[in-house]
Amino acid sequence: MLSLLVPLTDIGPGDGATVIVPGSHKSDLPHPETANDIGQDFGSTENLEGAIEVHLKAGDALLFNDAVLHGSAARVNPGQRRMLATRYTENTVAHRFGYAPSPELAARLTPERLAIVQRYGQTLSC
Length: 126
Description:
By secondary structure, this protein is α+β, with helices and mostly antiparallel strands.
């Protein structure tokens, strides 16, 4: 799965930047500091060994393999971190949150577009 993040505002130190551990997607071992976690939310990740904050200007793009250990730094500056997040995965893989197109959406799509948004083997009654 690929993730694409596009900030709508500048993201610098203290803004809750995206944090990644470069190369972690190549390991079949959990990060030692997250080994007791289920891999979801273990809080701010900027202090994990090997982690780097990725500072971006509004309109930049960060594309990464979703298997890389990633998260966000704690936001200590006032305001909000605003960004667009898009993910791509093969349609043979179920979304981790169980997302699926609604029957109403499926009814509006051409067969080609429906094939893009529905999971392989999934049938939707329209």
